[in-house]
Amino acid sequence: MWLQRIDHKIAVLQRREAEQQHGRQTRPAEPEWIVELGDGRLPVEVHMGGCYAAGKRRRPVSRDEARRLLASGVRACSHCQPDTALNILDLPTRPALSATER
Description:
Elements: H1 2-26, E1 33-37, E2 43-48, E3 58-61, H2 63-71, E4 75-76, H3 82-85
Parallel strand pairs: 2-4
Antiparallel strand pairs: 1-2, 1-3
């Protein structure tokens, strides 16, 4: 009876390990660039794929789209600095909001 329980537990653990290994092998690759989306689903900030500072609402973008977003005035993450990685030297800055626009 004990031998059956031990064999069953070993089989369960081996199956779990095989499932975890399969999950690690089939996990999709991390995107190279991501854009963080605001409440209105508009781009707020561009990040490199592995940036820890990216928010929960985000989507992967191509290198060209990341460059286009940065050039159009979307903020670059100050932690991972995608503008530097994309070799963009002069980004347009958005004018500061006045007290009446806030």
